[in-house]
Write a structure and sequence with these properties.
Thiol Ester Dehydrase, Chain A, 23% helix, five-stranded antiparallel sheet, alpha+beta
Length: 150
């Protein structure tokens, strides 16, 4: 398990890749973001993107899945109080191969809770062409390594 002390400013973690099918895009959007360019391939052709695209919220979900499976499950994660920002920079289309990466840009031991530290991270998703499609800046709590028994 990785503790707060095992992370350093500047560390970068590769999180793996994942693709979305047209069916997955439509199913997610029907439930959570039913705009025509997310749910109707025909209507999407005359929409602002010229084709069906994934909801930005689904793109965030892809990143979260990659983050948890590629890093967080092997840590003493204590959750997150929130994000500082998300940017959707390019549309995600069916079949795009999304690759995740996260970089630590700030590390601070908690002043009020000695059992944890605070990491600020910037996550990125790129497509198969290496184009940046999304960034997300987050605040994360991680448990500190217990002191050895004396």
């Amino acid at each position: 398990m990785r503790y707060f002390e095992d992370f350093a400013v500047g560390d970068v973690y590769e999180l793996g890749s994942r693709s979305l099918t047209q069916e997955q895009i439509i199913a997610f959007a029907r439930e959570y973001d039913p705009q025509p360019f997310h749910v109707d391939p025909e209507a999407a052709k005359s929409g602002p993107f010229g084709t069906l695209i994934a909801s930005g919220w689904q793109t965030v979900g892809v990143f979260m899945s990659l983050l948890v499976n590629g890093l967080v499950n092997d840590t003493v994660s204590l959750g997150s109080p929130g994000i500082e920002g998300i940017q959707w920079l390019k549309p995600v289309r069916a079949g795009d191969r999304l690759t995740g990466r996260v970089r630590i840009y700030e590390s601070t031991p908690s002043k009020s809770r000695s059992d944890r530290g605070i990491l600020k991270t910037e996550g990125q998703l790129t497509n198969q062409s290496g184009e940046l499609v999304m960034t997300i800046r987050a605040v994360n709590f991680f448990g500190r390594r217990p002191a050895p028994n004396r």
